[in-house]
Amino acid sequence: MPTSLNLTIDVEKRRKTEKILANIYSLPAIPEIMFETSRLLDDPSTSTAALARLIGKDQGLASRILSIANSALYGLPRKVSTIDFALLVIGYKDTKNIVVALSLMEAFKNKSDVNLNYKNVWIHSYMVGGTARKIAADNGMRNSGEAFVGGLLHDLGIPVIHKYLHSMFLNIINSVNNEGLRFLEAEAFHLGLTHQDVGGFLGEKWNLPPALCEVIQFHHDPVSAVINPELTAVVHLADYAVNMLEEGKITWDKDIELDEEVMKKYGFTTPEQLGSFIKGYKPILDEEIQLIKY
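Predicted structure:
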């Protein structure tokens, strides 16, 4: 599990962190609804009604599926009020990935505290996912739904560190606040890994598709992606855009930098061009954040 960025790594600390992470796999129960939903979606004879009944048993999951279907990014003229209709709007393939992503986020959820507010983590992740989906669609990517899921999961490693490596989490916060380190530098110093590596490691343990594991592991370092560089670049750009617009309100990524190769890929030659591009997504994000905030 190599660290992708050029950071100073303590090999012994990395080994200790990896050992802890290896044991985490058995701690959160993989939600049964995730397995059941995947099973139904893999069965070509499954009806929308049967799938809606299953998802409807989990109120939290159902409400989030509805909020996604009602997203301004889908552009429907009327409100989606039933799970059946939501599944038709989102599509079976994207629904499967979204259920897996939401199940993962729920499994690693912890109590909010002064250093990490889980509501803000959800809002930030949702905003990055929605922005990634829109950028992907605007640029003709074949599966913009995968970009949405990648955005949802990109910061998976942060709540995992908060929940299972809490003393190190506090050390990281202290180094950022009092020693002037950036978050990635502080993570590498205290853990021998970054939140990218932690999330990527657990994504592999939970058998996420390789392209999504890559997005999680390289969302700050998209040039290191080899399986689907375009997908990772889209999520990286979306993460940057959301942070620049301060829609996510999560300080962990406050020092994010846009990769130069991604700048070139999307034709940004000046800061003004980049700023104009980002501002173009603000109206949709403003509408989205009001939809899910409460």
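Summary: The mean pLDDT is 84.
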